[in-house]
Design a protein that fits this description.
The protein has 413 residues and is of the alpha/beta class. The chain has three domains: 177 residues, 3-Layer(bba) Sandwich (FAD/NAD(P)-binding domain), CATH 3.50.50; 125 residues, FAD/NAD(P)-binding domain, CATH 3.50.50.60; 83 residues, FAD/NAD-linked reductase, C-terminal dimerisation domain (Enolase-like, domain 1). The protein is built from eleven helices and 26 strands. A five-stranded parallel sheet has the order 3-2-1-7-19. A hairpin with a 5-residue loop joins strand 20 and strand 21. Helix 1 packs across helix 8. The longest helix is centred in the C-terminal third of the chain and has 16 residues. The radius of gyration is 22 Å and the shape is globular. The structure holds flavin-adenine dinucleotide.
């Protein structure tokens, strides 16, 4: 790789920051530039729906790439700058300030944006979303005892927000269109445990109903649900999922498929442009090439590193076991693998209310492990489950169910 090469990372988030660092760790000596449209250096998003809302101190963005680290690695960061277009033929990108930059290889790490609601009677800015540090700060300033908060969407972000808002004394209602919470990614039994905990904490849960309209009057708004129920509220937050940020890729004529479509090496349909993190979908080697798009912190990190290696010419297919966690109150939910690949579930009781489910495919292969409970109770076993999944293990069912059997022993088998 010639030293004059210029690699540009579009998107100053988790995947972009990780990729830039990995380029240096892998020995790349050319120019590395990260371009991000937010006013901040890359920062961690997971705290935004957790400690940034609950801590007494004013939140600070948890910076991933400090100025010292950027200087140490020779990484140039341009914030407040949006990449407007990519000229693939000329290998140039156009920036929001009017400038153009030449690149040899590009990484799209543009992430995802919060899906917006469209409901009759509702101005777009009347509903808050929670994706960026600035949005978290704005939301936090609204949370106070007695605030009537309506959360649209019973997924991870909505439920973490519900827990945080309860901690700050708000009256919380969660409205979910699907018949149950966490319907997209979490097995029903585990989601029921989480739902019970929210109900016990005083959150009002409404599932299987959407919003028909919103009436605005002095003293607040009233949500009229499609089941006819009326819910008075002072603030509304939508946590109804995220859309991959693909505009740039689409305009550049790159293939899309529920995100920027990449191959097993995270290359797009242009061999000089790679993609990583929430913005891309990729074929997963562990699941027969099933195309996935993950919105998960560790995936963004792992793919950032893998894409950096791909940009430097490595040909290793991306095969990290998907892993996600969510903290709500004092419990943690962790999912390794893909539960929906399972045909059978074996439950292991971990004590103290903690539970670990193993999901086996029809041929007995372990395809996922999902758990809920105090973090200290579940983290180690989920990690071992993840290692079994990576090994494509076919563990003994009775051993999986028996808490006395050490999972580490199954790994050796
Ligand atoms: C509130 C919240 C809580 C979360 N909690 C958890 C959790 O508990 N566990 C977990 O596993 N995951 C969690 N996640 C998910 C995790 O944070 C994401 O998967 C991860 O941040 C994705 O990283 P990324 O780099 O792909 O995208 P992002 O972090 O979204 O970064 C992409 C960046 O690119 C910028 N950008 C986009 N287009 C352009 C352009 N054209 N020009 C310049 N810049 C551009 C965006 O503004 C953004 O700054 C959470 C996410 C949120 C929002």
């Amino acid at each position: 790789m010639a030293t004059r090469d210029s690699f540009i990372v579009i998107g100053a988030g988790e995947a972009g920051a990780r990729a830039a660092t990995a380029l240096r760790e892998e020995g790349f000596t050319g120019a590395v530039t990260i371009i991000g449209d937010e006013p901040h250096a890359p920062y961690e998003r997971p705290p935004l729906s957790k400690t940034a809302l609950t801590d007494d101190a004013e939140p600070q963005a948890a910076t991933i790439l400090s100025p010292e680290r950027r200087a140490e690695h020779g990484i140039t960061l341009r914030t407040d700058t949006r990449v407007l277009s990519i000229d693939r033929g000329a290998h140039r990108i156009a920036l929001s300030g009017g400038e153009e930059l030449a690149y040899d290889r590009l990484l799209l790490a543009t992430g995802a944006r919060a899906r917006q609601v469209s409901v009759d009677g509702l101005a777009r800015d009347a509903v808050l979303t929670l994706r960026t540090f600035d949005e978290a700060r704005a939301l936090r300033s609204r949370l106070r005892p007695g605030l009537r908060l309506a959360i649209l969407g019973g997924g991870f972000i909505g439920l973490e927000l519900a827990a945080a808002a309860r901690a700050r004394g708000a009256e919380v209602t969660v409205i979910e269109l699907a018949p149950r919470l966490l319907a997209r990614a979490v097995p029903a039994d585990l989601a029921a445990i989480v739902a019970a905990r929210h109900a016990a904490e005083g959150v009002t849960l409404r599932t299987g109903t959407g919003i028909d309209r919103i009436e605005t009057a002095e003293g607040g708004r009233t949500l009229v649900l499609s089941n006819g129920e009326r819910i008075a509220c002072d603030a509304i937050v939508a946590g109804i999922g995220a859309l991959p940020e693909t505009d740039l890729a689409a305009r550049a004529g790159l293939a899309l498929d529920n995100g920027v479509a990449v191959d097993a090496h995270l290359a797009t349909t242009d061999p000089d442009i790679f993609a990583a993190g929430d913005c891309c979908s990729f074929p997963h080697a562990l699941y027969d090439g099933r195309r996935l798009r993950l919105e998960a912190w560790r995936n963004a990190q792992d793919q950032g590193s893998a894409a950096a290696r791909g940009m430097l010419g490595a040909r290793e297919p991306y095969a990290a076991v998907p892993w996600f966690w969510s903290d709500q109150y004092d419990i943690t939910l962790q999912i390794a693998g893909l539960p929906d690949e399972g045909a059978e579930t074996i439950t292991r009781d971990l004590g103290d209310g903690a539970r670990l489910d193993f999901h086996l495919a029809e041929d007995g292969r372990l395809v996922a492990a999902s758990a809920v409970g105090p973090n200290g109770r579940i983290a180690r076993d989920v990690r071992l489950g993840e290692m079994l999944i990576a090994k494509r293990a076919h563990p003994d069912r009775a051993a999986l169910a028996d808490p006395a059997v050490k999972l580490k022993g199954l790994l050796a088998g």
